[in-house]
Specification:
heterodimer, A: about 270 residues, alpha/beta, TIM Barrel, 13 helices, about 45% helix, disordered N terminus, B: about 400 residues, Rossmann fold, 2 domains, six-stranded mixed beta sheet, four-stranded parallel beta sheet, 16 helices, globular, TrpB-like_PALP_sf (chain B), EC 4.2.1.20 (chain B), amino-acid biosynthesis (chain B), Tryptophan synthase beta chain (chain B), aromatic amino acid biosynthesis (chain B)
Chain lengths: ~270, ~400
């Protein structure tokens, strides 16, 4: 077990962002290597120019159990294109020359494990990555085995919360978090549609009422201005994933990015 | 138990529960309740009754006389092939459906490769009147069509897994995705000793009836409780875990786990996980799996759909790493030949999975007094097409 306190200095870009901007934050997810290799930094740059506040760049995995068909497809295509963590890190050599907003890497645990966790954290930090979302790295394993690697490299590890997560567990997640908490709009895989029901509203209200120390960002099912506004009524911002990945399948997607962002947050 | 699971779900370096938060409440509920439910006298009584009167247990421990002569030792077959639905898979399905009932679940999901676990799950759902959805890879649905029909006749819905490589690992992914979307009313009956803790331990406990019976039966046959050798085939490893379970602490008993080498360990078409795999995380547990250097899961190959899985259960990974069990591999050709030999020398057509364990006998040397138990995990009815095509009957 790790005995040191799980804190880090707050110099990373995520903390600076959340310190200065509290509402209507917009984050975009996309899969590196999709639709083609060598697009990750171009897309990031375009998204920053279009006004996105921070980004999640996915690295693909063959067995993405938390993802729906859209992101599964992008992962399969990225793998076919030859994307690997090594290649992604090569692409990200350009990242901090062209992009200033906070960047998170998002992906499953096994590719990280094969790359080497310590090596992964060091490399990501060196390239200017601010945080990581690893959906299948649970709290116990993170805290007991790996937290130090993230903390030593000033990388935030982002935890997910679902409507089924107990208040006690949310408190524990709040303690272990040091930038934001990722609220899932429902227990679902990515790419579903968000329908505001009383249950979801109760869940958002319950979280808001807990007055957590970390900001909250809502993801899964955010696809247009309407769902974005609903999410922002209860949290500091929202994440759009599948809807943006679908845009990347279209011809001339780079030119369409500004209009896409305006469509979500005019 | 020396080789059992610790409180965090680990066997040495392997195991754990590497699951997304969406699955945490489901898995945590199981973790908190499975031991007390399994140990409850009412549960035990119902489980034992169904195993006896519905499954047909105890399954015989058969002294194979012609095999014994041929291999120069006392060879015994543990006849899981005689169970209702034709394999050991029913032991676990019965256990988990009774558990699901006590958890108040209204809907069952399962994954299946060859279809044996799917059929077992559809069977127990029919028995209990509970809705059943089975995920099966599109490719497996085509090559195991009779089992698809069986599941449908039993009232189950069979959903094709069309993502990824369209086989067992993708069926497992689809089942996990279903469970994420149905966290309250659904129980996922995993068919092998894989998945996040507590599944590997829970499934091993339900399958441990195999070795529990074997110990008693061996005394009746030989006057001794312990054999010299115990053999079983390993895909995910549930029949092997059940066959090894009560012998693990008897260090003199040599445990042999037989993996599917496919067309040869180095052919590029193989499912010999301990030979070809590295440590990693698959389907919620840290184990040994076949993967690229970048950590992408590699699609395995075996003529036997039930052994065609890129990982092994975490307890197997542990037994392998600490050398408590020996992991070997047998090719398609060796297994098919062994299946034919067993048919013609003992009058038993084994499942191709079990034929892998039988084939290992060819590679071993015994002393005349050695007692050797082989788990005959399933019957070969489902494999007739494959046998027929292979041998041209």
């Amino acid at each position: 077990m790790n005995n040191e306190p799980l804190t880090m200095n707050s110099s990373n870009r995520l903390n600076q962002l959340f310190a200065t901007k509290k509402d209507n934050l917009l984050s975009i997810y996309y899969t590196a290597g999709y639709p083609a290799l060598n697009t990750a930094v171009d897309i990031a740059e375009a998204l920053e120019k279009a006004g996105a506040d921070f980004l999640e760049i996915g690295f693909p995995y063959s067995d993405p159990v938390a993802d729906g068909p859209t992101i599964q497809h992008s992962s399969e295509q990225a793998l076919e294109n030859g994307m690997t963590l090594n290649l992604l890190f090569e692409e990200l050599e350009q990242l901090r020359k062209r992009v200033t907003i906070p960047i998170l890497l998002m992906g499953y645990f096994n590719p990280i494990l094969q790359y080497g966790i310590e090596r992964f954290c060091k490399k990501a930090a060196e390239l200017g990555v601010d945080g990581v979302i690893v959906p299948d790295l649970p709290m116990y394993e993170y805290e007991a085995l790996y937290a130090n690697y993230f903390i030593d490299n000033n990388l935030s590890n982002i935890f997910l919360v679902t409507p089924q997560t107990s208040n006690d567990r949310i408190r524990k997640i709040d303690e272990l978090s040091n930038s934001f908490i990722y609220l899932l709009s429902s227990s679902s895989i990515t790419g579903g549609s968000l329908q505001m029901t009383n249950n979801i509203e109760d869940y958002y209200k319950r979280i808001k009422g807990m007055e957590l120390k970390n900001p909250t960002i809502i993801g899964f099912g955010i696809s247009d201005n309407n769902t974005f506004k609903q999410a922002c009524a209860y949290a500091n911002g929202a994440i759009v994933g599948s809807k943006f990945v679908k845009l990347l399948a279209e011809d001339g997607y780079m030119e369409k990015i500004p209009a896409f962002i305006k469509g979500i947050r005019p | 138990m020396k080789y059992g699971v610790n409180e965090h779900g680990y066997y040495g370096d392997f195991g754990g529960a590497y699951i997304p938060e969406m699955l945490y409440p489901n898995v945590e509920e199981l973790r908190q309740k499975y031991i007390s439910i399994i140990n409850d006298p009412d549960f035990k009584a119902e489980f034992d009754d169904l195993l006896k009167n519905y499954v047909g247990r105890p399954s015989p421990l058969y002294h194979a006389k012609r095999y014994s002569e041929k291999y120069g030792a006392n060879i015994f077959f543990k006849r899981e092939d005689l169970n209702h639905t034709g394999s050991h898979k029913i032991n676990n399905a019965i256990g988990q459906i009774l558990l699901a009932k006590r958890l108040g679940k209204k809907r069952i999901i399962a994954e299946t490769g060859a279809g044996q676990h799917g059929v077992a799950t559809a069977t127990v759902c029919a028995l209990m009147g509970i809705e059943c959805v089975v995920y099966m890879g599109e490719i497996d649905m085509a090559r195991q069509a009779p089992n698809v029909s069986r599941m449908k006749m039993l009232g189950a819905t069979v959903r094709p897994a069309s993502s990824g490589s369209k086989t067992l690992k993708d069926a497992t992914n689809e089942a996990l995705r279903d469970w994420i979307g149905n966290p309250v009313d659904t129980h996922y009956i995993i068919g092998s000793v894989v998945g996040p803790y507590p599944y590997p331990d829970m499934v091993a406990r339900f399958q441990s009836i195999i070795s529990e019976e074997t110990k008693k039966q061996l005394v009746e046959h030989t006057g001794k409780q312990l054999p010299e050798y115990v053999l079983a085939c390993v895909g995910g490893g549930s029949n092997a875990m059940g066959m090894f379970y009560h012998f693990l602490d008897d260090e003199d008993v040599k445990l042999v786990a037989v993996e599917a080498a496919g067309k040869g360990v180095d052919s590029g078409e193989s499912a010999a996980t301990t030979f070809l795999g590295q440590e990693g995380v698959l389907h919620g547990s840290r184990t040994i799996l076949m993967q690229t250097p970048d950590g992408q899961v590699v699609e395995p190959y075996s003529i036997s759909a039930g052994l065609d899985y890129p990982g092994i259960g975490p307890q197997h990974a542990h037994l392998y790493k600490i050398n408590r069990a020996q992991y070997v591999s047998v090719t398609d050709d060796e297994a098919m030949k062994a299946g034919l030999l067993c048919s013609q020398m003992e009058g038993i057509i084994p499942a191709i999975e079990s034929s892998h364990a039988l084939a290992q006998l060819e590679k071993m040397t015994f002393k005349p007094d050695d007692n050797v138990v082989i788990c005959l995990s399933g019957r070969g009815d489902k494999d007739l097409d494959t046998y027929i095509k292979y041998f041209g009957y």
